[in-house]
Amino acid sequence: NTTDSANYAEFRNFKIEKGNISTAWSITPEEVNAYIEKVDKKEINTVNNILNGDFATKGLDKWSNNGGAIYSAFEGRDTAKLSTSRGIYQSIYLQEPSIMTVTVTAYSPDDTTEIHFGFLNNGVGNFMAMTMIQGWASYRLTTTSKIPSDTILHIYSRGKPYYITDVMAVIGNSNVNYSKAPADYLEYTNKKISDISTIVDAKASNK
Q1: Residue 127, φ and ψ in degrees, nearest 5
Q2: What's the pTM?
Q3: pLDDT for 51-87, tens place per residue?
């Protein structure tokens, strides 16, 4: 028989494993495979083509820096801080030339600084310069002509330094919420699997 009670127990990161070696909690192999399958099935117009667009590596990994950008943990977000007339850029490789939409989340200290971003040297209409509003805002560019399959996205500042994060470049004109690139998801998953294997091997060697 059961009775109602004001008390309850809560379990998190519950794990059952074979053997007598205790290891740190991890997702199951089935969950890993399902996650990878989900990434593989993303529709082409929602796939982010920018690596480390949220700067979650705590640095500018995957980006090139023209000398005026640094990683910064700002207001609880991983960001790149761009100084005046400086910025960052990243190569993009597509299967074929395509219309693209770029979205950048940025914080400006005032309402006079300009954000400049786009595919430079790839034709008029594929680049945007916009006066920013003070505080956090999202800035978006949809190109007016197809971007070459091998191109470079530039983001830089005109005015005071500002912060950017959640950089996204998708094929087509979709306005979608930020998500990591599939390669970022897989890199994260593979690192977790590697970390778990290291822990298991270390515990086994101590037996």
Answers
A1: -150, 150
A2: 0.70
A3: 999 999 899 999 999 888 999 999 999 999 998 888 9
